[in-house]
Every structure is written in structure tokens, then in C-alpha cells.
Amino acid sequence: MVQAIRMPMMGNTMESGHLVEWQVAEGDAVEADDELVLVESEKASNEIVAEQDGVLARVDVTAGEEVPPGTVLGIVAGPDESLDDAPAPRSRIEPDSADESPDTDTDAGTDGEAATEAAADTDDGGAGAESATAGGDAPDASGDETDGEAVPTADGHAFASPSTRRLAREHGVSIREVSGTGIGSRVTDSDVRAASGETDRPGATGVEAPDATGGRREARDPGTLGVTIEREQELSSMRRTIADRMSRSSRDAPHVTNKREVAIGDALAAADDLADELDAPIGFTDVLVAAVVRALDRHPEFNAWFEGGRLRFVAERNVAVAVDTDAGLVTPVIREAAGRSLAGIATERRRLTDTVLEGNYTMDDLSGGTFTITNLGMFGVDSFDPIINPPQVSILGVGRIRDDDEGKQCTLSLSFDHRAVDGADAARFLDTIAEGLAAPSVLAAERARLGADAAGSSRLAAGRSAEAPDGVGAAIASDIRERALEIATTHDWPVPEFEVDLRGDRPAVAVTAPDTASPATMKRLTYAACRESSYAGTITELHDPALTVDCG
């Protein structure tokens, strides 16, 4: 059977792919596993290989073109195969569809293909197939049907993506009255702008420039402005996608940014200490990720996606940390961050960063994020207003670390979608992050309790990792002693020394007291101090630890 070379689906939010280069020419002989064509999406590239021996019998899409996923790019035919058995040029089916027979794919204008075209239309930002139908079947104010549906016209159906339909509403244009020039008579953004009287066609004079909404408009003639264009540069596929997504986010989501100065001296010191104790690449960013996870646990409305007019709460805490690359900003995702120890967070973040910088990442590394952290502090930026990465509802910007009279400080800037949360919610969220950074030993204990690196599960039923760091136990012991000192002062009791071991199924507290102390009194004091400990709520069993008392 002939091989239909199709644009692959590289990520569930992909709307189009860019054909970078054909590795073989039409008519060339190929062998199975030969590289045929290089394609790329917004943030990933892919080489499509031959599945059989034969000839590249047909090339449908040339280098530099962009087409939707599932589009036929060309055909490889075996020795006894004919192009009569091949799908029509540029015809499209759903990627990874089980049915690729010519009966359902040959005629580009058939209802079968039209149905798959309509079904494939989804909004940006990871909405997926669900969001395409989330709006129901009710017509909008202009009389057109809601996003993702085909609109009946006198000549058949008009197909357009949700973003194109939204653009039509903004320009006061009815999709029914627009002639589509895209594949399968699809209505494109350019068609909508042309119908509204806005020039967006090849051959327009001057240089194209983005308009206020991130679209395209006819550029000014440089000669009339007394300037000389030195050179022009086409945006890369990744850069175009970033520009489009950020423009949509800024246009669609009402952004508000809350800023707060936070003390981070303890967090920096804890990161250094834990890095030495655990021999792990723990840095301030990893402590910040842990503080963010803690805040997401307490404020789940920030661990959500805003799609189809609904707030969709996500069970996993998948934190994306932006990485600056030569090609653009990339946001790899630390999946299941809530189930990782601090060392686990640090190790995974370092792995993802190295993978991204080496260019070896996949769409799996970039997808599924529920919250994003972006840091411009290393560039000397004090604070900024980050743009939300849809469909997430918020993003945290981190500014430059400053050392002043109050110690080491930095500014955290939380941008949020005001449709989903309010300013007071954001203030409380920032407050929880600040609390975590001010008490990094609590974060470390919580990560040790919930970390699943050693046990291989997302959360341990017993409540702690088998490899809880000694430094955490020492921090808890010190906290218990402070509580014991407060209690003992009112009763004139001696204050013993405490040693905490977190490596079993239950916290073990060893008490060493003077020989003049009563064992019963020391037990009473210890239990009271544990219940008052800052860690008592984090490590539940600390209310009733396994206890050994040595008096003298």
C-alpha cells in the first residue's frame, strides 16, 4: 500500500506545522527508514522516514509552507503500486486515525473530510477536542454558530478555526459571507481581514507589520517615512507561535499583576545547605518551586485551566519553569511536582533544562503545565508583568535578588486571569509563597514526607520518604526544643536535647535529659512540644511520635 506522508500531530495544541526541508527529491528512490522530510511545530521538530522501499512519487507541499496536521505532504509508492491508490494531494484526515483508506480520504471536498476538518478545529492553549464543543450549538450574536462548527452557506459549509471565528466577530464579519482560500475552502484570518477591508494579501506594498492584536496589517511604505530598511527577517515557526499565543493571551485574558517583595535569605541558605547534605543540584529556583507547589495545594483555583468559560481544576501539580534558548523561550514541565522531594525537583529541573538547551526535548517535555515560573532576575530586571501561558490562569515572574538593610530580597510578580480569580485571591496566593520561602525547613520536611523518589509512588501512605535528609530531622529537633523551652519555663522543668529520625513509618524522637529529670515529665514535655511544633501539621504523626527517653 502506498505511504501517505502526513504532517504529524506534534502536541495536542498544534494548529499547523511548517515543512522545513525535503531530504529527497520527487522521483528519487528511497529505502525503508530513509529520512524523507523535516517538519516542525511551534516548539518541536520531527523527521519523517520512509516505511517501505520505493520512490517518492509525488510531492504536494513544498519547503516553507505551513499546513494543518494530518495533511498529505507527499506519497511514497512501492514497485508495484500506483498513485491511483493514493489520497488526493493535500487532503487531510485526523492524525493517528485508524482509517486511512482512500475511500475516506481521496476526495478533498467530501463530507467525510469536512467532518474531520471540523472535528480537528480547537482553540489555542491546549484546549483540545473538548473545548471545540464546549460552547454548545447556540448561534452567537452575529448569527454564526459557535467556535469549532461548520456554518451552512448557500454553497455548502464554511470551515474556520475558533480563533478565525473570533476574529470575524471582532471585525463584524459573518463567516457565512467570506470566501475561504485555505485548504478545502477553509476560511483563514487573511480572508476575514480582506472581507473587512483590511489588506492582508501577498503582494501588499511595504513591509508587513503586526497590528495591536498581534495580527497582520499593511505596513507603511518606508520611503515615505524617510527611513531605509536594512534587512528583513522572517520569524521562525517557534517565534511565530510564541507571538501568536502571547497576543491571544493578552487580548483574551484580562491580565492583572500583583507584586510583592519577599525575603529569600533563608531560602538561599537552605538551598546551599541541602545541596551539600544531599549531594543534589538544589538551588533557589527549586525551593521556589516547592513553595509554589505548597501554595497550589492551598489555593487550587490557581492550579487550573480556564477553557470554554469554565475553570477546570487539575489534579496534578505540573510546574513549568521557563528556559531561555537561542530559538526563543521554552517552558519544560516538572510533572507531578507535588510528589517529589526537593532533590527530586532539582534533579528533574536540571534534566529538563539541559535537554532544552541541547535541543533534544519533545512535546511531552513541554505539555501539561498547570502553572509557570519565569525568571528575569539574572538579566538584572527588578520586576515585570509576565503574560499568562493559556489555558493556565496565572504565571509567576521572579526579579533580581537584592541585598539591602533587611537582607536578601526579590520581587515576585503574579499575573492572573481576572476572569478566573480576583486580586484578593492572588494576594493570598503570594502570601503563602512568601511563608514557604521564609520557612524553607518546613518546605524541606514537606517534600521529604511527600517525596516519592525512593519509594516510586506519588505519595507514600506512611507519610515520608525512606531517604528523608538528616538536615530536616535536625531542623525539626531544633524547633521542638524551642517549643519545649517555652513550656518548661512556666513549670521550672529542665529542657532536654532532642533527636528526630524521619526514616521510619513514624517519626522517632529520642530525648536525652539530666538524671534529675523525671521520665514521665520528659515524656509529657516532649509530647506537648511536638504538638506545638511548626511541623506538627506537616508531619501528622509528629503529634504522637515514637518516643525514647534517657534520663541520665
SSE layout and pairing:
Layout: E1 3-6, E2 17-22, E3 29-30, E4 35-40, E5 45-49, E6 54-59, E7 66-67, E8 72-77, H1 102-105, H2 111-120, H3 128-132, E9 151-153, E10 156-158, H4 162-171, H5 189-195, E11 209-210, E12 216-217, H6 237-252, E13 255-263, H7 265-278, H8 284-298, E14 304-307, E15 310-313, E16 319-321, E17 323-325, E18 328-330, E19 333-334, H9 342-358, H10 363-366, E20 371-375, E21 394-398, E22 402-404, E23 407-417, H11 423-438, H12 440-450, H13 470-491, E24 497-501, E25 508-513, H14 519-532, E26 546-551
Parallel strand pairs: 16-20, 20-21, 25-26
Antiparallel strand pairs: 1-8, 2-4, 2-7, 3-6, 4-5, 6-8, 9-10, 11-12, 13-23, 14-15, 16-19, 17-18, 21-23, 22-23, 24-25
Q: Are there runs of 5+ residues with pLDDT below 50, and where?
A: 96-157, 199-217, 451-469
Count of DSSP strands: 26
Strand-pairing-aware structural class: alpha+beta
Radius of gyration: 30 Å
Main sheet properties: 7 strands, mixed
Name the beta content range: 15-25%
Shape: elongated
For the terminal residues, how far apart are their CA atoms? 86 Å
Question: In DSSP terms, counting alpha (H) and pi (I) runs of 4 or more, how many helices?
Answer: 14
Work out the helicity level.
Answer: 25-40%
Give the mean pLDDT.
76
Please provide a written account of the structure.
About 30% of the residues lie in helices and about 20% in strands. It is built from 14 helices and 26 strands. The chain has helices spanning about 100-105, 110-120, 130, 160-170, 190-195, 235-250, 265-280, 285-300, 340-360, 365, 425-440, 440-450, 470-490, 520-530; strands at about 5, 15-20, 30, 35-40, 45-50, 55-60, 65, 70-75, 150-155, 155-160, 210, 215, 255-265, 305, 310-315, 320, 325, 330, 335, 370-375, 395-400, 400-405, 405-415, 495-500, 510-515, 545-550. With about 550 residues, it is an alpha+beta fold. Mean pLDDT is about 75; it is low at about 95-155, about 200-215 and about 450-470. Strands 13, 16, 19, 20, 21, 22 and 23 form a seven-stranded mixed sheet that branches. Helix 8 packs across helix 11 and helix 13 (about 470-490) crosses helix 14 (about 520-530).
